[in-house]
Design a protein that fits this description.
Layout lengths: L1 H24 L2 E5 L9 H16 L2 E5 L7 H4 L4 E5 L8 H12 L3 E5 L10 H7 L1 E5 L4 E7 L14 E5 L3 E5 L4 E7 L13 E8 L2 E6 L11 H15 L3
Parallel strand pairs: 1-2, 1-3, 3-4, 4-11
Antiparallel strand pairs: 5-8, 6-7, 6-9, 9-10, 10-11
Length: about 240
């Protein structure tokens, strides 16, 4: 009986150790959503949706609106940063340096919607995101053309994909981006980028990985299975999951 009890105890210790190691290895992401410009009401909805994606797909999620979190020793615990519609000027020189070091160390970045409406006077940031916001028409439905059908962030999307959102025009694109989706401006009113209107993309950038989607303005987007698949794949790319 004593031998059985000892064996059971040993198995419990091994199981606990394995569980501890598993949790330690679980990647963690940080959602940053500070707004010094327009504040999107859907940020709260997006946070909850990403937390749910994390719980279902094996990554932990922290959230902050505090720019002072951007210190090297703090950021190094995160596999990826998710900029969920931050707006305006949000960083000082020290925070800018911390973000640059983070990317240079090989980590990942995800920009959602108004991440492109942020830090206009810091070109490095615009290049990291991949573009800068210019304007938008009223919210409406548009045809979305799948440019890269082999990428995980577009697999399963219909082509064209009919999607309702706030549709950004951009005044700048980083020429190094790899386009995933573009808007068909003949399908809606108010487009300003012409026949080539990227709305989602990714690229490797100065040692790190960057994914951006222009969608995510509406609360409804964050319960749309197609959009959730799109954003999940972008997060996994930024984390470094193959």
């Amino acid at each position: 009986m004593k031998k059985i009890a000892t064996a059971v105890l040993a198995l419990l210790i091994i199981s606990t150790a394995f569980t501890t190691i598993h949790h330690k290895r679980q990647p963690k992401v940080l959602i940053f959503s500070k707004t010094n410009g327009y504040h999107h009401a859907s940020i709260a909805t997006g946070i909850e949706a990403i937390k749910k994606l994390g719980a279902e797909n094996g990554f932990a999620v922290d959230t902050t609106t505090d720019s002072l979190m951007f210190r090297k020793k703090t950021l190094k615990q995160y596999a990826a940063l998710i900029f969920l519609s931050p707006t305006g000027k949000v960083f000082g020189p020290d925070q800018e340096k911390a973000l640059q070091d983070y990317i240079h160390d090989g980590h990942g970045f995800v920009g959602v919607h108004a991440a492109a409406d942020c830090e206009y006077n810091w070109q490095w940031y615009g290049d990291l995101v991949g573009g800068y916001f210019k304007s938008h028409p009223k919210q409406q439905e548009a045809r979305v053309i799948v440019v890269d059908k082999d990428n995980a962030a577009t697999k399963g999307l219909p082509d064209p994909w009919t999607h309702f959102d706030e549709l950004y025009n951009y005044k700048y694109y980083n020429p190094g981006i790899k386009v995933l989706l573009r808007l068909d401006e003949t399908s809606y009113t108010g487009g300003a980028n012409g026949d080539n209107h990227p709305i989602a993309w990714y690229h490797e950038f100065e040692g790190g990985r960057s994914f951006y989607t222009g969608f995510g303005h509406t609360d409804a987007s964050w319960s749309d299975p197609l959009f959730l698949h799109h954003i999940l794949a972008g997060i996994q790319y930024a984390i470094g999951k193959k």
